[in-house]
Amino acid sequence: MTKRHGFTILETLIALAIFLVLIGMVFQTTVRFMQVRAEQDAVTTAQSKLRRIVEVFTQDLRSAVLGTIIDLPYDSGDEAVSFALISGGAYNTLRYNTSDYFVDVASLNAPDFSGAGYALMVNNTGTAVIFRVTSVQPVATGRWRVNHAGCQNTVGYTINTLLFPVKPLGLVYDSDQQELQMNEGSGPLPYAFNITEFKIDYVYFDNQTGTDVLNPTGFNPTNSPPLKQFGGSSGNRYTLRRLRITLGTSEQTARGKTITRELVSNVDLSNNATYQIQGVVPCN
Description:
- The protein is of the alpha+beta class.
- Helices cover 19% and strands 40% of the residues.
- It is built from one helix and 17 strands.
- The strands form two sheets. Strands 1, 2, 3, 4, 5, 6, 7, 8, 9, 10, 11 and 17 form a twelve-stranded mixed beta sheet that branches. Strands 12, 13, 14, 15 and 16 form a five-stranded antiparallel beta sheet that branches.
- It starts with 8 loop residues before the first helix and ends with a strand.
- The relative contact order is 0.19.
């Protein structure tokens, strides 16, 4: 009978070394997999975050009354945009003077501005003004006076001048805080964090060439809302069709690596065949 011997110390050490090498390789592979997974999760999170911001923003902007851009609460430009959300039905106005601080409307019931606080008035030439409603009082049967103290009418009366209850909504980028802020009238509130880039471009349709133009020559929204139409001898060469929103964000992985992503989205403005706001003028 042959006598069997166990492993020698050298054989045991060699086997243990091989085992440790294999364990090390498995560990490194696992760590690398987890790092790649963390980076992929960061990328997914960043992209999802940008998409969510754009989706909410797009939904609000498409609800803007007559697709108009305004200058309340912020001047609309390349890092801020304001628009008016309609919050009730339209009211037909009765003849008024441009020097008045009120406008009368025809309505069986009292016009409701409680949920808005603001009104946007637009005549059938497309000139509009937005003002804060201070009170509503009856004048006669089916006639109500909408007062806006401190803000005169600045759009001339025409047949079918309409008054819309609206809620101003503004979005502005704070580059120091790297955050988007939203203002619904009560002051700016954080809307999205870790935003490394926010830029708004205005896309106009060139009625002369039949092409889209980004921020065309003569376009300058600084300190005033961008006009719906401008340019050319008739003043309607360019028609504002959409906003181009560029968003950038950064997300950190578990090991401190920063992932940056950018999203560019086009937001079409609503269109109304009867009323097209060409511009919003300030009240006096």
